[in-house]
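Example record

The entry below shows one chain as it appears in the dataset: sequence first, then structure tokens.
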Amino acid sequence: MSTGSDQPSPPARGRPILSPLRVVAAVSLIAPFVAMLWIPSYNKTSPKLLGFPFFYWYQLLWVIITAVLMIVAFTAVNRDRAQRRGASSGSGPASGVDEGSDGTGAAQ
């Protein structure tokens, strides 16, 4: 019989564990896998692009798309970390940039 002590506790600071930026990062990481593992969607020869069958240029296109999505995921995770750090400290810039004496964000 469970006493309830084995249940996970809610986040201490009131911030949800699953933020919108983390969802963007997760979708950006999962999309290339889904696109490449769903082979029937691109298992054809037409349309051709510069003489290459669709099967080949579609996969090469996903190399570029995947690189862009990895940048999006990296940026989203870094922004989420900065927001969490800013929320946990309660003061200071959330972006991690040191403010100068004039408050512009540029150190002199």
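Notes for this example: The radius of gyration is 22 Å. Residues 54-89 form the longest helix (36 residues).
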